[in-house]
Amino acid sequence: MSKPPLKIEQVRVEIDRVDNALLGLIAERLELAGAVRRAKSGARVWRPSREESHVRELAQAIEDTPAELVSRIWAELMSASLALQGPMKLHIALEGDALEVWTLVRDRFGAAIPAVSYPTASSALAAAYADEEGVAVLAAPGGMNSWWTALGAKGAMSDMHILTGLPRTGERDWPRAVAVATADIQPSGQDQTLMICSDFTKIDGAKLRAEAGEHQLISVDGYLASAPEGAKIIGVLPKPMKLT
Questions:
Q1: What's the pTM value of the predicted model, to 2 decimals?
Q2: Mean pLDDT over each residue of the chain, to the nearest integer
């Protein structure tokens, strides 16, 4: 015999119980975030590959919850944690639709990380490069933009890397914006490797993403630890979580 449905008052009591439990766990997580920074002993605060793989695993573990909701919740939790851990700052290029850019940033990085906006990609990239824990958020390579050439072998910022795409969820295989920093390139488990070369037809499986003069930006499925001859790896993009 099935149980009678709970009365609305009982449901509200249960919701309050869950909310209080959630707040307690959030407080515990933030306390641990402070301990993480002390344990890192000077290591970089932002580890995008671990963050991407962790959020993906969480979304897969709770199939009945939309991936987009999981991504947004953890963006805020990780934003608060990163703000506690150290001086990470976002340097955002507001080229194009500024409202869309801010929405993408908020959905991916939350609201707690300090952010500064700039009118051009070059100025945002330069500011992030000069900032030890800086992350530049720029329009994804393609069309007329050529900021990504600065990450090439002879570029002014050859030690910067494209490390994640915005948005984190969706059906597109190429993002609307990307985050760039001097953090190391690490695999997330579901990636595409980005390289600059001069002739993409010589690289198996290469997709041409952008061109600027003699430079070609390509992507190759999977994580590559080293580049083929004639190419330089400039980043890795975790593949977006599919919407459910």
A1: 0.91
A2: 92
